[in-house]
Amino acid sequence: MQLETLTYARPQGWSMRPFPALDSESTLVLVFAARGFDADAQALGELRAAYPRSRIVGCSSAGEIAGARVHDGSLSVAVARLEHSSLEIARARVPSVEASHSAGVELARTLARDDLRAVLVLSDGVTVNGSELVRGINAGVGPEVTVTGGMAGDGTRFQSTWVLGPNGPDTGLVTAVGLYGERLRIGHGSRGGWICFGPERLITRSAGNVLYELDGQPALELYRSYLGEMAEGLPATALHFPLAVREKRRDEKVLVRTILGVDEAAHSMTFAGDVREGCYAQLMRANFERLVDGAGEAAVATTRSARAGEELAATLAIAISCVGRRMILGERVEDELEATLAALPKGARQVGFYSYGEIAPYHMGPCDLHNQTMTLTTISES
User: Which of 40, 41, 178, 338 is most buried, taking the most CB atoms under 10 A from its CB?
Assistant: First the structure.
C-alpha cells in the first residue's frame, strides 16, 4: 500500500502540492472536514479533480485529527492506494430515523462478497439512529468481517452534519467502504477510560434512545441527585457523567452512552445511542489520566489485532474519538492523540475526527455503537 496524508487550512491552503500521484480504481481518499466546507466547494473540488478514478469518502467533524494534532476549520486527508486489494463504495439515504436499520441492511447487502474483509462506515450524526444502523449492518455481514467507523460531527452545535456523496456534502446519508482481499490486514480497538461509580440500576422503562425510568423511578430525578450542584448545567454537564450500560449485572461488555438532552416534563433523558429496557445502567465519571490511558489501550489492541506477528509496511490509522472526550480533555486533548501514535506501528499515518458516536466491535465479533470512546482502525497490506 502507498500512503500519504495532507491537510488544508485557510488561508495557508494545502500542506502538500502537488497532490500525491496515487489516483487509481483501488485508491481510497478519506476526508474529514469542518462542517462549513459544505458551502465551500473549492478545496473539495480540487481533491475530486486530482483523484477522478479514486473512491473519495468523508464527513463533517467536531475537530479534525492530523497526526497528533486536532484542528478546527480544516480538512484532514489520507490518500491510500492499495496494491493487492480492492474497494467498493455503498451509500444509503436515511429519510427518517426509523429507516436507520433498513439502511444498514441495504449497505451490507450491497457490499457482500466472499472476500469482504472489512467495512468502514461514515454516517450522518444527527438524523440517523446509530444503534439501529449497526444492527442492520450486523444482520448482513458475517462475524469474520470487521465493521468500524463513526457518526459525523458538527462541532458542539449538534444541529446538522454531512457525509460526502457523489455530488458533494449531503445530509441524511450513510457511506460504507467495503475492503476486499486476502492480503489486507485490518486492526481495530475501542476503549473509554471512564470510571464507574454509584449503584447499578435496572432500566425499567425506555424507548429507543430515550430513558424514562431506572428501578421504577424517574431517571432524570435520579441523575440529578447524583450530580448535585452540577445538575444546574444540564445537558452540557452530562458530558462529564455518561452512563455505562450492560445487558447483565457485572457483564464484562459495557457500552457507554452520552446524554444529548433532557425533557423536564417527561422526567426523561435522551442519549446518543439506544438504552434498552432490561439492561443495567451505572454512572461514570471522567479522569484525565484514565481517558488518555484508554486511548493508548485502544491503540495497543488495534496493533495486536492487525499485525498477527507480521512486519507490515505502510499503515493507515483512522482515529475516531468522541466530541465529549474533546470537551472534557480541553487543552489536553492532544495527549490522547500522542498516546495512540506512540502505541501504533512505527511510521503509521494517523487521520480522523471527533465524532457524535463511534462504531466498532467491543473486543471481537459484531460491531456496536459507542459513545465517549477512542476508536481506532488500521489498514495495511502484507
Answer: 178
